[in-house]
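Lab notebook, bench 4. Continuing the backlog of folding jobs that were queued last week. Each job is logged with the same field layout so the records can be merged later without manual cleanup. Today's entry covers Plastid lipid-associated protein/fibrillin conserved domain-containing protein, a 203-residue chain. Filled in by technician R.K.

JOB TYPE: sequence-to-structure
TARGET: Plastid lipid-associated protein/fibrillin conserved domain-containing protein
LENGTH: 203
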Amino acid sequence: MTPLQTRRHQLKTQLLQSINALEIEDAILPVEHPAIDQIICELETLNPIDQPLRQEHWPMLLGSWALVYASRGTVVTRRLGRQFPLPVSIQRVWQRLTDSEGTGAGIATENGAVLSLPLFGELTATAQGVWNPYEEGESARVSFGAFTVQATRLLGIAGLHLPQITVPVLEFLRQEALWITSYLDEDLRFGRGATGNLFVFRR
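JOB STATUS: finished
OUTPUT FIELD FOLLOWS
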């Protein structure tokens, strides 16, 4: 290994150990972890993939990723305490990226979460959207066109095939956001929102 590769490996190990030491709610709810944020920032300077959103890097970028850390929570988790009168447990959060219609014109994204609600069961919520990368190959315009909710475990009964409820977002109501992919390697990916929120995804 080169000194740079050695340092990157050390930081990755340190980062994942720090994240694994957290409960999932602590890792993806809006709780401050400045030491973790500092490691992320240092790893961003050692990003092995320049312009990670360029199409030649899609084989490494596309696929399913688990969200393991969000410095200021996510759109879903920031609202849990306000929207639900009962405590909600987060089982997992993921993001699935695919080539939009196989055209190479954009990246289709599915952001999902499995939530456990007391006395009810498990609920899977997903948002379907698209990334439109900019030419500089690091940032993209992101918009979501539909949201889906499905009960996957009801009153403790698993294996149910309950219908999905899909709510399309009307064209004039869609809002675009900036998404920056600031680090990418074979099993780790960082994203930044427009406000600087840090996201860590893992294969």
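OBSERVATION: The two ends are 23 Å apart (CA to CA).
SIGNED: R.K.
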